[in-house]
Write a structure and sequence with these properties.
The chain is α/β, with parallel strands linked by helices and about 120 residues long. The chain contains five helices and six strands, in the order βαβααβαβαββ. The chain has a six-stranded mixed beta sheet with strand order 2-1-3-4-5-6, sandwiched between helices. It is globular.
């Protein structure tokens, strides 16, 4: 899966997802400090799903009406440690398909997926 990890996503999780076979670009590596709007724009251009802890992406995703090929996965979990986040991220992505075109929320006990407007 092609992912775009927001700056707030920990290195351990980025590396774990890469090890699991995902193509993960990380804002902290090459675009530090860009606005959330630019993160969404980049995700659209590169056909990547944004992974983030920033709940502002919910408002942006619905207000800007992301195209169906893009998507956002918001992690709203208890961040016990970077290793725990890595474990949850890998398990969550393996547990579902069809992330593209959805605004998804990964919580400690469930995953919610809402289609984005086309």
């Amino acid at each position: 899966m092609r992912l775009l990890a927001n700056e707030n996503f920990p290195l351990d999780a980025v590396e774990a997802l890469r090890t699991d076979g995902h193509d993960v670009a990380w804002i902290r590596e090459d675009s530090r400090g860009i606005s959330d709007d630019k993160v969404l724009h980049r995700a659209q251009e590169e056909n990547r799903i944004v992974i983030t802890f920033d709940k502002d992406f919910g408002e942006l995703a619905f207000r800007s009406k992301l195209p169906a090929q893009s998507g956002v996965i918001l992690f709203r979990i208890t961040p016990i440690s970077p290793q725990y986040i890595a474990q949850v991220a890998v398990q969550a992505l393996a547990s579902q398909s069809g992330w593209a075109g959805h605004f998804s929320v990964v919580e400690d006990t469930r995953i919610r997926m809402t289609p984005l407007m086309k």
